[in-house]
Write a structure and sequence with these properties.
The protein is mainly beta. 13% of the residues lie in helices and 38% in strands. It has helices at residues 14-25, 92-103; strands at 5-11, 37-39, 41-42, 59-61, 70-72, 83-84, 104-114, 118-119, 123-124, 129-135, 140-144, 147-149, 156-160, 166-170, 176-186.
């Protein structure tokens, strides 16, 4: 199996995931967001750590023909994001968070939306990610190094080694929404 993508032996209810995601995302105004998503965890006692541009964190990219790597955004101490956001308590997402965090050390846990016919830059992150696809389509793919993978919304959680250069594109005509958790190791 490719080390960049590993399907984990954890599965959640895909129908319940879609229902709860649709309920949350229809209540959000996206007009002022450059990153479309919701942060489900925060730094304890700091609700502002889960909002606005806090969805983003440091990454490295090679933006032009020179191939020179540059840093974008500011460093985020992922290990501080240990408190579940109050307004999302009692949701299926809290249950998922509790199950995942018993087995793994997690950083930020976010619901991230990629609109149709869009992509992210070619970049690398400081830590790997766990992906739980919720809403997707056959045109949505994650590319890590030279490996391309469609992650189906069937309830399975995937380990993705995003410390390698990667991108995601949504070539379909509907949104792609994943729960994405920063992976900091095993418990």
């Amino acid at each position: 199996m490719n080390n960049c993508f590993q399907k984990l032996d954890i599965k959640f209810n895909p129908k319940k995931l879609r229902q709860e995601t649709n309920a949350l995302f229809t209540k959000v105004s996206w007009r002022h967001h450059t990153v479309k998503g919701l942060c489900l965890t925060q730094i304890p006692g700091d609700p502002a750590s889960a909002y606005g541009e806090k969805l983003r964190g440091v990454f490295w990219t090679k933006p032009d023909f020179t191939g020179k790597e540059v840093q974008r955004e500011e460093y985020v101490d992922e290990s501080q994001y240990t408190e579940f956001v109050e307004k999302y308590k009692g949701t299926y997402f809290e249950e998922i968070y509790n199950i995942l965090s018993k087995k793994y050390k997690l950083g930020r846990v976010r619901l991230l939306l990629l609109e149709p016919r869009t992509s992210l830059s070619w970049h690398r992150d400081p830590e790997p990610r766990l992906h739980l696809p919720i809403i997707t389509n056959q045109g949505a793919h994650l590319v890590i190094d030279d490996s391309l993978k469609h992650l189906p919304a069937d309830g399975h959680v995937w380990f993705t080694d995003t410390r390698n250069y990667h991108t995601v594109f949504n070539g379909g005509e509907e949104n792609r929404i994943h729960l994405v958790a920063t992976y900091l190791g095993e418990r």
